[in-house]
Amino acid sequence: MITHFLPPERFEAERPRLRAVAYRMLGSSAEAEDAVQETWLRAAKADLGEVENLGGWLTTVLGRVCLNMLRARRTRPEVPLDAQADEPSLAGADPEEEALLADSVGVALLVVLDTLAPAERLAFVLHDLFAVPFDDIAPLIDRTPTATRQLASRARRRVRGGGPAPESPAAIADRARQRAAVGAFLAATRGGDFEALLALLHPDVVLTADRFVVPTPRPVTVAGARPVAEGAMAATGRALFTGLALLDGRVGLAMAPHGRLRLVLLFTVTEDGITAIDVVADRERLAATEVAVPDGPTAGG
């Protein structure tokens, strides 16, 4: 009897795609690498004589590995926010690489995915982001294809947000103004461009930060364009893990290292610029904020 084992070079050819799937499933580059390595260890021992679609078979194995990791994660106690390091990092992870990955996927998408149940996350990621058929996903989560389709649909609604999209010309123009201003604010902060940031802010802009942001005994208020801009420049490191998000239907910023929401910035934008910024790290307020993806995925199914 001839046994057909997987040559390492064939697995390496599949590694980039598998890593992309695992990162979207787990939201952490270190965990994604662990999942891909576990997939290789399982694949290296398997007889692939009857496997016709190697990529699909490896994705299925990876899906099982990621599902187990997500379920195990939910049984671990959550680390309190004030016990975490100021600068987001994970042992064995490169913060800059992690930030680039999060930016390429979309911070808001990672935040929403982190709120989904493991089966919902698997169904949505594999089907909507990587076009895996529901018939192939269903056995991984012990559901029928119809039930799996419903899980993905429910996840898709969370990604898009529950509120209606703006329809009136005024609402569309307001959303566009928000997005342009907030996007420019993020770009200037990341790039350390003080003058560009100053130009975005109304001279009398007011920034408020709740007591969990620093933390401090009481909320902090900063008034005036220059002091607000100087404070933003001091948070350039955090901006690497920050991305555009719909926050209760308005364009804002979400900071979420490894997909875990840490704080949000809510903006008031007028024709005269950014007039107010509300920085929120209070867990109760974060939990009550609906986070969605601006112009999110629209794949159906």
TrEMBL record:
<keyword id="KW-0731">Sigma factor</keyword>
<dbReference type="InterPro" id="IPR032710">
    <property type="entry name" value="NTF2-like_dom_sf"/>
</dbReference>
<dbReference type="InterPro" id="IPR014284">
    <property type="entry name" value="RNA_pol_sigma-70_dom"/>
</dbReference>
<feature type="domain" description="RNA polymerase sigma factor 70 region 4 type 2">
    <location>
        <begin position="108"/>
        <end position="158"/>
    </location>
</feature>
<dbReference type="Pfam" id="PF08281">
    <property type="entry name" value="Sigma70_r4_2"/>
</dbReference>
<keyword id="KW-0240">DNA-directed RNA polymerase</keyword>
<comment type="subunit">
    <text>Interacts transiently with the RNA polymerase catalytic core formed by RpoA, RpoB, RpoC and RpoZ (2 alpha, 1 beta, 1 beta' and 1 omega subunit) to form the RNA polymerase holoenzyme that can initiate transcription.</text>
</comment>
<feature type="domain" description="RNA polymerase sigma-70 region 2">
    <location>
        <begin position="11"/>
        <end position="74"/>
    </location>
</feature>
<dbReference type="InterPro" id="IPR036388">
    <property type="entry name" value="WH-like_DNA-bd_sf"/>
</dbReference>
<feature type="region of interest" description="Disordered">
    <location>
        <begin position="151"/>
        <end position="171"/>
    </location>
</feature>
<comment type="similarity">
    <text>Belongs to the sigma-70 factor family. ECF subfamily.</text>
</comment>
<dbReference type="InterPro" id="IPR013324">
    <property type="entry name" value="RNA_pol_sigma_r3/r4-like"/>
</dbReference>
<keyword id="KW-0804">Transcription</keyword>
<dbReference type="Pfam" id="PF04542">
    <property type="entry name" value="Sigma70_r2"/>
</dbReference>
<dbReference type="InterPro" id="IPR013325">
    <property type="entry name" value="RNA_pol_sigma_r2"/>
</dbReference>
<protein>
    <submittedName>
        <fullName>DNA-directed RNA polymerase sigma-70 factor</fullName>
    </submittedName>
</protein>
<dbReference type="GO" id="GO:0016987">
    <property type="term" value="F:sigma factor activity"/>
</dbReference>
<dbReference type="GO" id="GO:0003677">
    <property type="term" value="F:DNA binding"/>
</dbReference>
<dbReference type="GO" id="GO:0000428">
    <property type="term" value="C:DNA-directed RNA polymerase complex"/>
</dbReference>
<dbReference type="InterPro" id="IPR052704">
    <property type="entry name" value="ECF_Sigma-70_Domain"/>
</dbReference>
<dbReference type="GO" id="GO:0006352">
    <property type="term" value="P:DNA-templated transcription initiation"/>
</dbReference>
<dbReference type="InterPro" id="IPR013249">
    <property type="entry name" value="RNA_pol_sigma70_r4_t2"/>
</dbReference>
<dbReference type="InterPro" id="IPR007627">
    <property type="entry name" value="RNA_pol_sigma70_r2"/>
</dbReference>
<keyword id="KW-0805">Transcription regulation</keyword>
